[in-house]
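Suppose you are handed only these lines of text.
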Amino acid sequence: MADPSTQLSDQSIPERAVKKAEVFKEPPTPKCVMAISAHPDDQEFTVAGTLAKWARAGSEIVTVCITSGDAGSNEKTDPDMAKHKLAHIREEEQRNACRVLGIAHVEFLHYPDGTLQPTLELRRDLTRVIRKYKPEVVVCGDPTVRFYGNSYMNHPDHRVAADVALDAVFPSAGTRFIFPELLAEGFEPHEVRKVFVHGSEKGETYIDISAVLDVKIAALKEHRSQLGDWDPSEMLRDWAKDEGKERGLDAAESFRVMILKEDEEKSNA
Ligand SMILES: [Zn+2]
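From them, the structure of the protein bound to zinc ion can be written out as follows.
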């Protein structure tokens, strides 16, 4: 791997030369964070350690769930279960998981599970919640990853959720004349400073989650309708250990971090 200090600024972007992130230092705790996922439990499998850590350090966190997980899973879902009933159960489970993590706000957008499309309607709905809560950091998946290893094809809802989340962050949330109907509803433009993209092949920013790994596991266990009697502890521990290896950490989550706007302290310096 190349020495990061020798990596050049990306000056191939004509609008502006973007400085490389300081990839080996753990970023400061953001004041307000929004984590956007397709399904209840996505957040707990992926970024819950980071969210738990930030919540304990004082971040205000909003979880946005685009669907209510009403398609369930073939293995764990009773085929006689009504979809609306399952949606209700899974929303409760997501709220409980957020409580464990220390997340106060949970928003469901009630899109249908399994058939999510990258529509302008969804982009507007995500733009609305971003403008409502004004997060400094948005956490979402990586829409460019189609395959993980040789046995998991990224769920189409995950790709769509990530794609539209990024489109809502830029340019919609910060641009006054995109979705003018949101202005009429009272939602002024808001510029998100950073995007933490999880599940990325270019994840170079590591968050040490050793102190909160148990919290992440406890939060995932709240999704009882999906886990059945399977205990996910060992798998989550293995994942966190694997992620941490690269930086000599016992447990970590990694992100590709996009810096759209420098921190205030930095830009004033
Ligand atoms: Zn999912």
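What can we learn from it? The chain is about 40% helix and 15% strand. The mean pLDDT is 91.
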